Amino acid sequence: MLIKTENECKIKLLELIEKFPRAAILTHVEPDGDGLAAALALQELFPHLQIMLEGKGSSKYDYLNVQNRTKICQKNLQFDLLIILDCHEHSRLGICDHLSKKAKAIIAIDHHIQGNLIPEAFTYIDTKLASVGAILFNMFKERIKQLAKASQKYVADSLYTTILNDTDNFINANTTAATFDMCAELMRLGLVPGEIANKFLHSHSANEMKLIGQSLATIQTYEDGKFLFFYTTKKMLDNLNLTAEATGGLSRWVKGITGVIASVRLQEIEPNKYKVHLRSNHLNVNKIATKYGGGGHKKASGCDMNGDLNTIRDTLLRDLKEQL
Asked: What is the 3-state secondary structure (H, E, C) of the chain?
């Protein structure tokens, strides 16, 4: 059931939290700085909520104490209420999706383009806001102000992380005057922007920088430089003793290249299977992602594809050319 307004979503969420105290927060597979940090902020507001992940929380979010605030999803777990953030589809919940089969109520809050809704869930989607964290801030700003100072700062740091992640440090087209107004309000709650930006965006190990270099060295362009492709292989990761977690944010390194109207990053998951990251300020890459079972935003989307590197590249090139 689609919820039409932000206020209706807030009322329904509070009603469900009160009715079903045994509750968990979920986000999508490979949780990012929006879904995960938004979950941490919501948990600070409602401390009894448990955050369930597919695996151990990324060390990238140690500044938000992620390890102590999240748990790994197990088959024998059961919750009466599931709160799904930054996602509204069964297919993107990964191994945590089994929890939905036992839940008495589900509410999903998202800002991605509507895909296959979870039939049994109350769902609220606002594509106009930069992050799902921004939706939570609008709903609970007065409640946040009633927290102790330390908690206010924690929520502010978490929500700022969601904005940094999904605006790519304010360079994406989803950055609006309202986005900056929100950041100013977060500063009044204790946020120090440079402190969080350095921790979230600039804390790379030497091997992670090598991975960035090796990935960028694979760049190839097509159609007179309009389309840019680059990739990361498992061998690169293995040789540098890194995991797939280290590939997060790689797409931002090719933004702004002269003449490029769309970029594609291919990340090898296993032999003949790749995760595809599509970015464009000119084309609707969500149409391409949804074609292959993925989704996201009009200008930033992703999906998984099977096949060898060259076949996937040629397939995506045809799809991109169709939009010229």
From this structure: CECCCHHHHHHHHHHHHHHCCCEEEECCCCCCCCHHHHHHHHHHHCCCCEEEECCCCCHHHHHHCHHHHEEECCCCCCCCEEEEECCCCHHHCHHHHHHHHCCCEEEEEECCCCCCCCCCCEEEECCCCCCHHHHHHHHHHHHHHCCCHHHHHHHHHHHHHHHHHHHCCCCCCCCCHHHHHHHHHHHHCCCCHHHHHHHHHCCCCHHHHHHHHHHHCCCEEECCCCEEEEEECHHHHHHCCCCHHHHCCHHHHHCCCCCCCEEEEEEEEECCEEEEEEECCCCCHHHHHHHCCCEECCCEEEEEEECCHHHHHHHHHHHHHHCC
Q: Which domains does the chain have, with CATH numbers?
A: 6-199 (3.90.1640.10), 206-322 (3.10.310.30)
Has this prediction a pTM greater than 0.90? no
pLDDT in tens, 129-152: 999 999 999 999 999 999 999 999
